[in-house]
Write a structure and sequence with these properties.
The structure holds two protein chains of two kinds. Chain A is α+β, with helices and mostly antiparallel strands. In chain A, 31% of the residues lie in helices and 20% in strands. A seven-stranded mixed sheet of chain A has the order 8-9-10-1-11-19-12. Chain A has a six-stranded mixed sheet with strand order 14-18-13-17-15-16. A four-stranded antiparallel sheet of chain A has the order 4-5-7-6, with helices on one face. Helix content of chain B is 77%, strand content 1%. In chain B, strands 1-2 form a two-stranded antiparallel ribbon. In chain B, strand 1 and strand 2 form a beta hairpin. In chain B, helix 10 packs antiparallel against helix 12. Classes of the chains: A alpha+beta, B mainly alpha. The interface between A and B is large, with 57 and 58 residues.
Chain lengths: 533, 328
């Protein structure tokens, strides 16, 4: 009998050990692995506090933490800040910092680092920061774990700008020494994020290794992330198909190969993870010049363009018709409206011809009313085809369009410094809030020579500027929505820019990797939850 | 006696190279000034928008607000002190950037040179020995096809066939970034990555050398000295190896020396297709981002490379053909 019990206990023990053995790897399975991501083009530096250039942020966001993270519902979540409180008047914002966070060099992260990162870095050297944080007059640090932002007026849009991508928290003891604009650590970032910088072999790869001391216990799951640079689009597709690379986003996946990749057994394609970026494609008209200073001409052009055709045939279905400068990603927050003049109509060509006839631009003997020069946007072959489509579509309403193709430097100068163009194309990111991403397209303040990606059309409207100013300081979302509804209506009626579509970028992910896109920042998030099966 | 003259000759040639390289720098510098747009606007553009104060600050920081001649003066002064300057876009010293990338390019160029010269000379030699037969025709047709096919297309097809379908070689890059091999394993790994780009870049030159070799071999075989050699009682094998081959090699070597510049150009395409981290890609990026300091550094290095290789070719002449005298 005793023997039986002994046996039973042995069997039970064995059973438990086996069960434990079976369960253990299931829990531990998440750990380990290397993810190779394609970053295109190679970032010039890793100084995300100096430049918002896409490739920089895609890598640096894994190294630098922010005060907050954002979930898929656009709600702020704790990160370096455990909690936060915005005073009723919107002029005092208090963050409580997490204790025990250390930078990759072993030094602790305190409120002094946050103060430095906002007042000396974001407000000074960041391209968008001076605008985002313009209302911040002081950052107080009563103790090492409390940060108080003092504002001279409410800035509700600021709450969305505390990600590690937009406002990285830098170690003061390193970056306060020397010239921030030419700092030796620009290419050797030291942050507090889930991955630490190991090596950058120029032209080949950047290697990031797991931060063993990351403040989220047990995370990140991956051992390593390697960013690779492959300039040829077909080779990128081949590397993804073969499983040599596991992830590619933001234009690194060629639109024309997205379908082929999604059919491959290794890869899935998603379009999520752009909710805080929201690029809107546009045909930019130079309203300083005749005949584009004539609103009837602009409307006629807007009617002549078939947005659906553009999306389906040039961007292979990745997009959604736009109604104005604001992306419908702002619909959940109530800031977006589509109750504006619609130019995507079935009889567009007839309407356009009528408008042009009435405006006095009769067709001449050669069938054309006038000529325009279109400068193709030098950001990839889609934009060349877009230019060709514009020439074709406008040809149907008697406007002859010639196409010019130049490189990025020349195009930037022509468009934003010399204003020497008729029409060109572009796409502006809406980013975290219309104040950051939408105002710059049509406000009078944004008409400045040499300021790139600003108001290129030269058009502005007093009422729109007034409404934008009000929406900037208004904390109540419903009221902000009303201001934007009116401003967007005026913009659509005057149509200085023809907003064609909201761009969706295909993101390619190897099926072995899970929980990759879990943030509205997508590729610009820190990947601390990514794991392999 | 010959070696002493050879050394003197090399020294004179190196001295002559100084004004050549100086001319290259000045010419390139002035020509770059003609391109519109500058580094500051491109940097600002990459940032997705920036204030004009920011752009003005960048321009002042990079000295772009100074007159062109002043900028040129500074540059030449720095070059004299072996200081190639700083790439603001990369936040790195240009000499460091170049050293890192030059190795990759030299590896690709070196293996291409060996592969294309070796196989090209062999193919041309065989074709000339088999002249008029079907084997000669096959070699000639293959050479013409290789000569006429664009490099990038060859590269992509090789990736498709040998990487995706057969899984023999990696698609791109210079080493495996999941394993990060070390020691001998790393050498083997890099060699595996080198195969497809080297073949792609070689094909064009291989075809060129094969056709040239075949033609000169046939030409040489008809000359009087061959008849003399035959009359002397040498067999065909001795005639080919000891006499005809050496003479026929001269034009091929000349061609190879001249083609070095072209090889650098061709490597831009191949480096881009195979994501090979060489100097060609760097030049391409530097041009489009108006990173003139970096671009000038690349021009300088390329000029030096071409001068040195042509010197080597001239020395090889002497070794191949003792009748050619140096320094006289």
């Amino acid at each position: 009998m005793l023997k039986f019990y002994q046996n039973l206990s042995v069997i039970t023990a064995t059973f438990l050990v086996v069960m434990a053995a079976l369960l253990m790897p299931a829990a531990a399975q998440k750990k380990g692995g290397t993810m190779v991501m394609i970053v295109q083009p190679e970032p010039p530096t890793l100084a995300s506090y100096l430049s918002t250039s896409g490739p920089i942020g895609q890598v640096a966001a894994k190294v630098y933490d922010g005060l907050l993270e954002y979930d898929m519902d656009m709600q702020p979540q704790p990160s370096l800040a455990e909690s936060w409180n915005l005073a009723a008047d919107g002029k005092t914002l208090t963050f409580k910092l997490r204790k025990g966070v250390i930078f990759h060099d072993g030094k602790p992260l305190t409120s002094a680092d946050v103060q430095f990162s906002i007042m000396k870095v974001a407000k000074v050297t960041h391209p968008r920061g001076p605008n985002t944080f313009r209302s911040v007059t002081a950052v107080e640090t009563p103790d090492p774990y409390t940060v108080i932002l003092k504002l001279d007026q409410a800035a509700p849009y600021m709450m969305m700008a505390f990600s590690g991508y937009e406002t990285p928290i830098l170690p003061k003891h390193i970056f306060a020494n020397g010239d921030l604009r030419a700092h030796p650590n620009a290419n050797k970032p030291i942050g507090s994020g889930p991955f630490k910088f190991t090596e950058w072999k120029k032209g080949a790869y950047i290697r990031l290794d797991k931060n063993e001391n990351y403040w989220k216990k047990g995370q990140p799951y991956l051992d390593r992330i390697v960013a690779r640079f492959i300039s040829d689009p077909s080779t990128r597709t081949a590397a993804l198909e073969k499983g040599e690379a596991h992830f590619a986003a933001m234009g690194a996946v060629p639109f024309n190969d997205a379908k082929r990749l999604s059919a491959s057994k290794n890869v899935t394609i998603t379009t999520r993870g752009h909710e805080l970026i929201s690029p809107v494609a546009e045909l930019l008209l130079n309203t300083r010049r005749a005949p584009l200073n004539n609103v009837s001409v602009r409307k006629a052009i807007a009617y002549a363009i078939d947005r659906k055709f553009v999306i389906d045939n040039i961007w292979f279905g990745y997009g959604k018709p736009a109604t104005g400068p604001m992306s419908s990603n702002f619909a959940p927050s109530g800031l977006y409206t589509d109750k504006v003049t619609q130019y995507q109509v079935s009889d567009g060509i007839a309407r356009a011809n009528k408008l042009l006839d009435e405006a006095g631009f009769k067709k001449k003997a050669d069938g054309f009313r006038f000529e325009l020069m279109h400068d193709s946007l030098p950001y990839g072959q889609e934009w060349t085809r877009f230019g060709e489509y514009i020439a074709q579509a406008l040809g149907k309403i008697g406007i002859k369009v010639n196409i010019r193709q130049e490189d990025v430097a020349r195009w930037l100068k022509r468009t934003y410094t010399d204003n020497d163009f008729d029409t060109t194309a572009n796409y502006l990111y809406n980013l975290s809030d219309p104040v950051v991403g939408v105002h710059r397209a049509i406000s009078a303040k944004a008409i400045k020579k040499g300021r790139v990606f600003s108001n290129g059309s030269g058009w502005s409207n007093k009422r729109v500027d007034e409404l934008f100013d009000k929406a900037t300081v208004e904390p109540d979302l419903a009221k902000r929505g009303e201001y934007y509804a009116e401003a967007l209506k005026i913009a659509a009626d005057n149509i200085p820019i023809i907003w064609t579509h909201e761009m969706n970028f295909p993101t390619a992910i190897n099926k072995k990797f899970k929980d990759v896109i879990v943030s509205p920042l997508g590729v610009y998030s820190n990947f601390d939850r990514v794991y392999t099966e | 006696m010959q070696s002493g003259r050879l050394l003197k000759y090399i020294a004179i040639r190196l001295l002559q190279a100084v004004p050549v390289i100086f001319g290259v720098i000045v010419l390139c510098f002035l020509m770059l000034q003609l391109a519109p747009g500058d580094l500051a606007t491109v940097l600002a553009g990459e940032s997705g928008g920036a204030s004009e104060a920011y752009i003005a600050e960048l321009q002042a920081r990079y000295g772009l607000d100074k007159p062109v001649l002043v900028q040129l003066g500074y540059y030449i002064k720095n070059i004299m002190m072996f200081d190639l300057g700083f790439s603001f876009r990369h936040s790195a010293n240009i000499s460091e950037l170049l050293a890192e990338r030059m190795l990759a390019t030299l590896l690709l160029m070196g293996s291409t040179l060996v592969l294309s010269l070796g196989l090209g000379v062999l193919a041309g030699l065989l074709a000339s020995l088999w002249v008029g037969t079907w084997k000669d025709h096959v070699i000639s047709i293959v050479a013409i096809i290789a000569y006429a096919t664009p490099l990038f297309w060859v590269g992509l097809m090789l990736i498709l066939a040998f990487s995706i379908k057969l899984d023999w070689f990696p698609t791109s890059g210079m080493e495996d970034v999941v394993q990060f091999y070390e020691g001998w394993d790393r050498v083997v790994d890099i060699a595996r990555h080198l195969v497809l780009p080297a073949i792609t870049l070689s094909l064009f030159y291989l075809a060129l050398y094969a056709r040239l070799m075949r033609a000169t071999m046939l030409e040489q075989r008809g000359l009087d000295y061959v008849t003399t050699a035959r009359a002397k009682g040498l067999n065909e094998r001795q005639i080919t190896v000891r006499h005809v081959l050496r003479n026929a090699l001269l034009p091929v070597v000349t061609m190879a020396g001249v083609q070095i510049g072209g090889l650098l150009g061709g490597s831009v395409v191949v480096e881009s297709v195979f994501a090979w981290p060489g100097i060609g890609q760097l030049a391409f990026e530097a041009l489009f981002s108006r990173d003139y300091n970096l671009l000038l550094g690349i021009f300088l290095i390329s000029a030096i490379l071409v001068v040195v290789i042509n010197l080597i070719v001239d020395v090889i002449y002497v070794l191949l053909d003792p009748r050619i005298r140096v320094g006289s």
